[in-house]
Design goal:
Elements (H helix, E strand, L loop, with lengths): L3 E6 L3 H11 L5 E7 L2 H10 L4 E5 L11 H11 L4 E6 L4 H10 L3 E4 L4 H12 L27 H11 L4 H8 L3 H15 L4 H10 L5
Parallel strand pairs: 1-2, 1-3, 3-4, 4-5
Length: 212
Amino acid sequence: MKRFRVALADDHPLILVAVKGLIEEDSKYQVVGEARSSGELVELLRRERVDVVVTDFNMPGDMVYGDGIKFIDYLVRNFPDIRILVLTMISNRAILDALYRLGVGGVICKSATSRQLLAALNAMVHGRGRIFPAPAAGGSKWGTRGRLAELSVKEHEVVRLFVSGMRGHEIARLLNRSDKTISAQKAAAKRRLGVGSDQELLSYLREWHFLD
């Protein structure tokens, strides 16, 4: 029986431990390495033979590779033979669509059970990538009530980096955009979310556990 070699990436050590334990319940998978940043994952993939990457979407702080859409795009382009499963709490349809356009094998919610995670992995390695389980709807904090699903891909990237502690000029440099563009995209996000100031934006995003 073929064993699939898996690399894990998440900036939260406890999540790495939990995901590793869930994946290794199935003897088809062998976790060959773990990373806590985008840079560590790239080094791992260059060093080890890997079939599958299970990576968090949010790993801010790496000014070389970034995270989110920028980093996933880098992985897809530079490691085309590796299947990528994105682990996230994001339910923003624009973000999910963008991930599939980039070519990821699947997206799974962080709240998934071990059974669901293994089902998603099995589907992906057999060429049946999907979002599993489906994003929450209605009254969920990740549904439409939170209005987070209304942000565009670029607005989502900007506010995600903003709430992680980055300043406007740092975000502009990381995303290769002008300071003026970043300011405009943050302002557009605030209008969509119904907040008036940067402090209100931070409070809103932290209340809804935006980086979880």
